[in-house]
Amino acid sequence: MSHCTSISQVGDKLLVGAIDTSFISASTKLLPGTAVLNGPVLMGAALAAPAARATCTIGPPLSASLPASLVVDGITNIFGTFIVEGSSLFAGTVVCEGLAIKQSADIKQGTDISNALAIGNDVCIANLTQIVNGTLVVDGAISCAWLDSQILAAMNSPPKSFDMHHPTKPGWRLTHVCLEGPEAAVYYRGTLKGSNIIELPEYWRGLVDSESITVHLTSIGIYQELSYEIIDWGTKIKVLNNAGSAINCSYVIYGERKDVDKIVVEYEGKIEDYPGKDQRSIVGYHYDYRPGINA
């Protein structure tokens, strides 16, 4: 004995299932061609049929010649939670205004704009440039083959240097190597004439250990018996001339920074075995190098 479900028509509305006319309102009367299906709807080779996973379950097409289960050519609005358990392929613009949680592979071929929190618990593959205008927080490890190669090249590179356009020879370049030493040092240099006091920058008081200050004095013009004293808690240098003549000299003043830990100059092991607080820079980077422009 065959069973037939209730199919009826209310005006231009198709009604399948139990009689329910609650959908007919002042607004829906203006929408011709409405179909109301009161119950689970299975389309195509719906997964887990006949058990319904949702009010509307759409599976792969019955015909192998049709590759897609669902195609939407226009705008799709989803006002509730959108869960993707498999791979999602977006070839155009994706705008996400709410929370996006991705549990599987996410492949993006076009622009992806997220104005809210996006949580990815699986692989995210982006084949185009990703632009982050805010803070990027990464709690785990970052794996980047390009960055690893750059760091390896830096670790195997010669002493710290920078490479720049030559200031006087068009078409030439200028390379300098940075001064190296076993401390985080700063310097201040200049000339002194008509005075015997060198005023150090105000910031030296908070930056430099006054006990580490050294001064190099060089006479200008004629020989002078020069010496110095550090006064006012390391903020001034008093220059003395034992020969009694007027002071005319150049000076270079060095001091060790006190706002950072002293570096461990020598240690056993690999670079990741550094025993101190890691505040070292990566050496060997050419600061004015731009790939494809001035290689």
What does this molecule look like?
The protein is mainly β. Among the domains are: 7-58, no CATH class; 81-137, no CATH class; 185-256. The chain has helices at 145-155, 204-207, and strands at 7-10, 13-16, 35-37, 41-43, 56-58, 88-90, 94-96, 100-102, 106-108, 112-114, 118-120, 124-126, 161-165, 173-177, 185-193, 197-199, 214-219, 226-231, 236-241, 248-256. The chain has a three-stranded mixed beta sheet, with no helix packed on it. It has a three-stranded parallel beta sheet with strand order 6-9-12, with no helix packed on it. A hairpin with a 7-residue loop joins strand 13 and strand 14 (173-177). The longest helix is centred in the middle third of the chain and has 11 residues, at 145-155. The relative contact order is 0.09.
Summarize the structure.
Helix content is 5%, strand content 29%. The protein has helices spanning 145-155, 204-207, and strands spanning 7-10, 13-16, 35-37, 41-43, 56-58, 88-90, 94-96, 100-102, 106-108, 112-114, 118-120, 124-126, 161-165, 173-177, 185-193, 197-199, 214-219, 226-231, 236-241, 248-256. The strands form eight sheets. It has a three-stranded mixed beta sheet, with no helix packed on it.
